[in-house]
Amino acid sequence: MAGAPDSVALLLFFVFWYAGNMKYNEYNTAALTAVGGKTSGLTMTVATMQLGVCLVYAIITWAVQLNPARLFGLQMPEKQNVPQVTKGDLIKSIPLAFCAAGAHAATVFALGGDPLFGQIVKSAEPVLAAIVGTVFYAKAPSFYKVCCLPIIVGGVAFASLKKGADGSYSLKFDATALIFGMLANAFAAFKGGENTKLMSDKGVAQRYGGVGNQFAVTQIVGFFILLPIMFATEGEMFGTFLEKLKTEPSLQYNLIMSGLCFYIYNELATYTLQVTGAVTASVANTAKRVIVMVYMAAVTGTVLTDEQKLGSGIAISGVLLYSLIDDLLKPKKKVD
């Protein structure tokens, strides 16, 4: 690969993956604020239009036949031609695109409700992944992983508590962030299963010609899946959205940038996780969650409560343990 050595490129991919994720959260929050916040009735519209930006970006990469993502690692862009997928391939891709679009839209709702608590709830993704994998894909987690799930659930539950003036605790949390955060986790769990199922078909994988094309097609199909849902749920507000889009530079900028950051950081995450081991990937994902939370706390000026700090720490530690425990407890090979 022309350009920087792979080791340097990998480090830069990590840096820009994290930076892209942080900026996505910032631009997404700003875009939602520009349309009037979580009560504006335009959250689904923002989520859909972000995938619209992804659609435009993907088409541009095919038009110029180059994917510029590797430039972030100081390497030459990869060639990216239009995938030679068939109609049948696209039909097979619909379940994956539906789950990916659902995960994206639900995440936008969750982060729109409360950017920080939404991140805490999303850290519980392994819980939904374990349930979905067991029930729908016959891929049950190990006994040790199951033992980690109460730690994650307990952490999220503790982060939902608030101490009253009398010293007693009561549940106090943003319901939108909790409900849609868990919905996003469920969609993400199904997305993982559907992705594995789709790409296990070697013919489909070959016609896609790489994960870059598969991701592009997934976002495009996802956009067209969300579009009718957007009009069904927020169609009466679409004229208001267009008026705001025409007159408010803040919405224009943050909508475009959130869509671009979403697309690019996901591609960079794919590059890094493809070449790192499972342990490194798990640690990287856990560290990303912490860094994004700290960054969003600084950007929004929101101070985490002691319960949120401790609860998120417990939940995220549980996620890390969940990811590593099978490797940690794996029987050591006997040396003859």
TrEMBL record:
Its main location: membrane. Keywords: Membrane, Transmembrane, Transmembrane helix. Pfam families: TPT. The chain crosses the membrane at residues 46-69, 143-161, 173-190, 211-231. It is found in: Membrane. Residues 10-323 form the Sugar phosphate transporter domain. The keyword Nucleotide-binding does not apply. The lineage of its organism: Eukaryota, Sar, Stramenopiles, Ochrophyta, Bacillariophyta. GO terms for cellular component: membrane. The keyword Transmembrane applies. It is a multi-pass membrane protein. InterPro entries: EmrE-like, Sugar_P_trans_dom, TPT_transporter. It comes from the Eukaryota. PANTHER family: SOLUTE CARRIER FAMILY 35. This is Sugar phosphate transporter domain-containing protein.
